[in-house]
Amino acid sequence: TLQCLKAVPEFNQSLQQFSAAQAQAPRAGDGNGMLTSQLGSLFRQMDNTLEPVTPFGFVQVLRQVFAQFDEKNPKTGYHRQQDADELQNAVMTAVANAARQADPGALLGPSAGQHGGGATANVEDALFGIEFSNTLKCLACDAEPAVLKSETARKLVCNISRDVSHMYAGLKMNLEGNLEKMSGILGQTVPWSTTKRIKRLPRYICIQFNRFYWKQPDGPAMARDHPNGLPCKMVKAVSFPEKLDMFDFCDDSLQALLKPVREAFAVKYVFKTKTMLRIVSHCLGFRIGNGENND
Known about the structure:
Blueprint (H helix, E strand, L loop, with lengths): L1 H5 L2 H16 L6 H17 L8 H10 L18 H15 L5 H5 L14 H6 L1 E9 L8 E7 L2 E4 L7 H9 E8 L4 E13 L6 E4 L1 E4 L4 H6 L4 E4 L18 H33 L11
Parallel strand pairs: 3-6
Antiparallel strand pairs: 1-2, 1-5, 4-5, 7-8
Helix pairs in contact: 2-3, 3-4, 3-5
């Protein structure tokens, strides 16, 4: 998780700038600032050596700031294994809170945080922050007005089920679905559809493969041993592309901004493909376009 974050040069640079500012004006008792400084120090250590680095200082501060990472197994006395996604959420939240006063434009340029949405409050949200428009529609009553909501996140979730074999399908499953909600007209809880569309894309998109789900008891033995259900892991291969096309997941306003560049890229790609085909046809001795063959 930390190595993935370190691979983002702007994120790494923001840590070093914060560490330098923190050294000049330290803030006592600021857990977020302590963790952010330790992360910057850890990345500097990794840059300055080819040997493996053990993150003692970072882990120590992490356990001080987030008590959940300091939990121990009462039987063995060792620290419990923790979830990588929870670690990333904790680190991103701490860094964003610590560097909230930093100007994203100073590091990322004047367009920071404005790729289809409003300006962001910090560098981390400019790099990873996603803004959604969420439309909820009542499935039991057409007269019920739709509910529009705005939401933010620093990652997309790819839900994995038996029917999902590609990341695109898992992302769509997470962005579109149904839920139970009160209907003001009917006066009772009824099914609603929820459709999320992205209205701001960040420079980098973090995608979580959500393999865990809650399985309800499906037999007397399981109901006896696990009356509330059992956490399970979906173990299956899920393919993903080298380049992920997010166009279909964007709302109309963001698609309008992306469409000119998208069309220009398509024209350039078609031109390049036709050029390569002409070169290949010339080398192989046949023509393309009229069905003739020189052989």
